[in-house]
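INTERNAL AUDIT FORM
Audit reference: QA-55
Scope: verify that the stored structure record matches its stored sequence.
Auditor: D.O.
Record contents follow.
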Amino acid sequence: MKFFIDTANLAEIREAYDLGVLDGVTTNPSLMAKEGIVGYDNVMKHYRDICEIVDGDISAEVIATDFDNMVKEGEELAQLHPNIVVKVPMTRDGVKAIKYFTDKGIKTNCTLVFTAGQALLAAKAGATYVSPFVGRLDDIGNDGLNLIEQIVQIYQNYGFPTEVLAASVRHVMHLVQCAEIGADVVTCPLNVITGLLNHPLTDSGLAKFLADHKKANA
């Protein structure tokens, strides 16, 4: 499973990278705004800065909602760095744009996916990644993990190369369960990744080892 970090914060990206397990980054306009990154030139520079840290796929989202402007923005983003993946919403024009980018050899991430049917359309159009939103489905009483499992099964049935990128992952159990059901990628905040390190028995066991060592060398 690939680990992506869902942030535009450079310090968090560096910390995840230094841990040695980071495979890529996902961003969106909301995450950029959270870091105070505003204005076309600043946003583009920020994407380049991220690409300097991580040697992996970096999802950069288009703002436009119509086909022509999605294509314009996506081509500009793709020119920034070979690792840029153009993030496109699951809409009629978004699917058309994914097909266009695929034909041009530009990698894509179809975002805001909430049904298996949407994921099937994205794969048919040639998306590199499809991003079902686990947590947001859970928020409205639906089973986000069941959707991941459905998509994984459909893609396996027909040999689609599109990778299932589990998004809106809120906690460690989400991440582990996504791994159990075969998601190719998970994207989540830094605290979810570092949360995998933690267990009280690890802490108490280490404390005992250190205490015993101290006694033995007293």
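Auditor finding: record pair retrieved intact. The radius of gyration is 19 Å.
Action required: none
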